[in-house]
Amino acid sequence: MTQQLRRRGRGGAYSNKARELAREMTAAGCSREKVGRLIQLIGRTFGIDIKGMSRRTVSRVIIEGWVASKVQLAHEIKNSEGVTISQDSTSHRKQNYEAHHIIPKVPDYDELKQLQDSGDKAKLIYKPRARFVSLDATLDHSSQGSIDSWKVINNKLSELFNRSPFARRLNQKFTIRDFLLALKGMCGDHANNEKATAHEIQNLKKEASIEHLGEKKINEKSPAEIVFYLAAWNAKKLEEVGGIDAWNCLSPREQAVKDSSIAQRLITELGQAEYDSLGVDERREIDLFIWSGCCMHKDLNSFKGGNSEMMGEWERLGVDRPVLLANKGNAAILQRVLDPGANFGKLTEDQQRAFLESTRGGVKAMDLMGALLNNKDDKKGQGDIHVNYFKKHLGKDHPRFPPTNNTRFSSHGLAAAEVIKYLSLYRKFINEDIPYSKTHPTRTNLEVNIARALSDDATITELCAMVVYMNTISQPYLRVVRGEDVNALDLGPLHAEVKSHINKILDEPSMLFDASETLCLDGKDWEDPDAMKAVRELSPRLPHFQNITLAFIRGSLATWERFSSEFAPGGLIDEATPAEKLLAWRPATNDINEGILGYYRVTMRGKPSLTLHQFNAMAMYERNDTLSFMNALFEEEDYQFIRKVAREIDSSGLEAKRREAQVQFRRQLVEINLKKEEARKQKAREQQERMKSIPLIRDISELDGPPRRELDEKGSGKWTGYNLDLQLDAL
């Protein structure tokens, strides 16, 4: 046991098993400071005296796992028939962070180890698995910045993998071209910059494919053919620079650049000719690159589209809209207007502005409920008071209110279901328990707004419509897309079914409002039958319930059409074969990126001194099953290599360099904008001086005849639009 934890005698390095234990302990949440102490306690449990690891050693051991994860990722990309990528970004403390994932086809490494021992690797099955690549602090949020990040990621993977003993032992080499040739698509949210990134990466893939074909063609040619080609291109090179004398005048560096450029053009021309000669199926195989959007974002946007249509339906019906929910400042201005018994005349200018700035409706009410009952700032709101109150009255543990002010997927619909199920209890909690539990019974503007919304039939009508949509369309859809190992490219029929189901409801609304039927998208039971039962009980006293619900569903349909366009009949996904869809496999949601971004923010709250590369090292090792990879394929020389590289990284000052790059970029940005601002001011000063020099018309009668010479800047001899514009500018 002792030898497994320490080796090389007195004061020797920790063994691979001890390092593995340290990484597993940090992955389980143990701080680096306490790992050494815990290892000592574990040793004493078994009667072994072990010298504990220092915090510095633990940090370096974590980096060793990071190095192993990068070797693993390059190996998996190199040996995968097809990979896809995904990314997303968020901000944290005014810094933009971008998460990257790659989805290669990989084996189960525990199974691989067993099959290696038995000598039967033919039974090994390769499955698509999401691999965390990195979370980077980007200099900007542009599409070009994202593309540069992918280039840097793959260049670093290439440099590390190609000098590893693992690569030498397997006789493998990894390049960014290997990545691009294996790349079959990209997924993410529906932001324009994400689509632009995918388009540019697709272009890079095409260029890499052409170069690959060109190099293969050169290798297939005989020496005589190669000499012929080089002679022809050499003549073209000399012609472009102006002849042999001009060529000799160039420096050796300039000549080398020209030679490199002409060689690249030769390869590209041969590759393009080879590509053009291929059949349609062969070109399709080379070009295969499919983009798809996150299904959770599709559902989120469909909900937003439904809400917009629902809010507009009140005016079309010509009835009173939901009650106004004004903020504290506007509420004071609108106090007389909001009082139902008030008799007021024409609105003042301030009241008109307050009306325009204030919002209303079910979604706004759920925003306010989330702020009161589950505020993202845990020092605000009712929090545990709400949970305890409902536990007492319902006789069971009650979950927290859905986090509507964190903009979580489906949170507003879930909040509506929660309120509709326990409407009378929420009214009592808001109107009685909260104000009368205070020393001086009062209600804040937030509490007043919520109480007003919960007693307003129009607002309740919107909440009921939200509940119906969630149970009929949204939640059945999410049950499918969040299933295990779902390929987003196989979901074309699902999206067609969503639109067909909505059209069926709009054509025969009575089906939806018939209490005897369950009209779920997937034909199963309601996700929340208690909420649907509460809607059935409330609907008779809500005269506009059916119209408002149908408006919500109608609005969602237009959004589904727009956000599922990649699945359109005749499109790339629709016409892809099952084999192509497997090559371009990707998850149906962007949860992997959303998850790691949220995990980073939560981690940094508890460990504010954690560096970004230490976070990446722990997350990559833990999430990519690197331990199983190392146990199955690593040998002693690989462990020595990752220790050596970890020492290099640890002494390189990665975090200091990253922060310095951020400061330099920000300084450059400030200087560029300062120059632009100065140029704008200078232009304004010049324009002002010019306007001062223009003589003004003093009498309207001057327009009857031709302009005076000093007023006719272009010498046209008549009043033109240009001359009149100058007069207006000068005035």
From TrEMBL:
It comes from the Eukaryota. Residues 678-692, 699-716 have a biased composition (Basic and acidic residues). Residues 678-719 are annotated as: Disordered. This is Uncharacterized protein. It comes from Lentinula raphanica.
